[in-house]
Amino acid sequence: MLVLPAAAGASVDPGSALHAYMRGRLADGDGAPGLALNSYREALAGDPASLEVARRSYFQAVISGDMALALRSATVLESDGLLPRDGTLLQIAGALNRKDWPGARLLVDRMVAEGNFAFLAPITRSWISVGEGRYAPPVIDPADRFASLARRYLDEHLAFQALRNGDLPSAQSAINRALALRTGEMDALRLIFAGQLAARGAKAEALALLPEKEANFAQARADVASGKALSLHGKALTAGQGFARLLTRLASDISSDGSTGTLGIRLARIAAFVDPDGPAAHIVAADLLSRAGHAAYAIEEARMVPAPGWYGALAQAELVEALAAAGKRAEAIGLARALAAVPDAEPERHVRLGQLLAQEKDFEGAASAFRTAQAGYPADAVPWALLLFEGSALEQGAHWNEARAVLERAARLAPNEPTVLNYLGYAQIERRQNMDAAVELLKKASALKPQDSSITDSLGWAQFVTGDIDAAVPMLERAAAGAPADATINEHLGDALWAAGRRYEARYAWRAAAVFAEGETAQRLAAKTREGMKPEYAAR
């Protein structure tokens, strides 16, 4: 078993399992996942019974995409009852890869007994039956406590299985139900269904799933219309591919709010283990890896999907995000420009480019991209978010008069959208323009979204600069309580407290702001804390 040296000065054999483990820990901390993975692999080989090495090896292996190491680590952890909750899914994937149908069924039974992911059991058992050659459709017991959750995933798999069996009417009904229930990963699902339908002669039905004049579907529409290479996209799903689809969908669903991103990554990775050529798992994994700070792995995943293929546009969009997250901003912007320049480019392509340009402080370029994103909408139906993006870029680029016109248009189209009201109101307060109307906008925004600390701060600051100190202080105190790490809010509170004669508390608020402030703001806060409030030290 792995043990730590008895004393801090004890030497560690550079070739030992302990040395490899320590190197892996350091690489983890330094953000070097490749070195960490190699180190844990070496450590586990040198000390195969170590639970600590196995635990770290498991997570690193799944995140990085090393199925063999993940399975070895899972075996060690399972022997001591420490297998993570997704470990059984990994082992099911391994059994499906080996076509060990009895073993897969036993693992599904264990998954049900554990309770974790038990709602996946009916659909998983059905796919195992496909592998066994004695198909049985998924049956969900209405009395089961997980029945409603399982039904969310049912129609998609009924569709795939009906397509396998050549039952196009049943497949079409299930496809329609599945698409009606989806909110995310819609483009990939449309593509896979279209490929399956077209390969079975349902050309019109396939084309109906692929929107016209949208670049994401252009290659697929051309191939379906010409009958070209449909065998690449329409092969009947195997048991492993069906299980992979189930995990990919679950990974996307549970990560939609960002609260379980690490688990989502592991699920997407397990899906790719069992269906390495399936694009959907790689696309979802790339998205989740980028959001979780694993940009290097996200780039690798996005590049696993061929750019010229049906799914290439979806993967290239994730590659843009991964490159930006990795600090390769020029490359990200270049790719985003290329994606936005194709015929029938969707609005989100222009938005993605605009956001990258805004982050690089090319506000005119960003405003132009956001404006282009609006071109496909009627003038009275432009999404308010696109107008807000454009107005924000213009405002930050010192084109205030243009920005105000765009923001006022957004407010007319979305009179009850607090984000728009807040931006328009606060931008006018900053410029000391139209003050009474701006305060009313902020009051309305705050009433619509009272728990939003940023909006609460905007209203409190507006009350302060218009001289209503008594109203401003409690409003800003509430904002600071909701966002204690926000430098701007704490500085605003400090200025208001000083004006109210609460000098000690004002300095406390400024010190709190200084913890998170940088540059000119940090200098201003230091001066206020030291000398007290002066006109030249007022918050910007």
Quickly list its features.
mainly alpha; single chain; 540 residues
Task: Describe the secondary-structure layout.
Layout: H1 17-29, H2 33-46, H3 51-64, H4 67-79, H5 87-97, H6 101-114, H7 121-132, H8 147-164, H9 168-181, H10 186-199, H11 203-208, H12 218-226, H13 239-254, H14 261-274, H15 279-291, H16 295-302, H17 312-325, H18 329-340, H19 347-359, H20 363-373, H21 384-396, H22 400-413, H23 418-430, H24 435-448, H25 453-465, H26 469-482, H27 487-499, H28 503-514, H29 519-531
How far apart the termini lie comes to: 59 Å
- β content, as a range? under 5%
The coarse overall form would be globular
By DSSP, the count of extended strands is 0
Structural class: mainly alpha
Q: What is the helix fraction of residues, given as a range?
A: 55-70%
Succession of helices and strands: HHHHHHHHHHHHHHHHHHHHHHHHHHHHH
Average pLDDT rating = 90
Biggest beta sheet summary: none
Gyration radius from CA atoms, angstroms:
28 Å
The residue ranges in which pLDDT falls below 50 over 5 or more consecutive positions are 1-15
Query: How many individual helices?
Result: 29
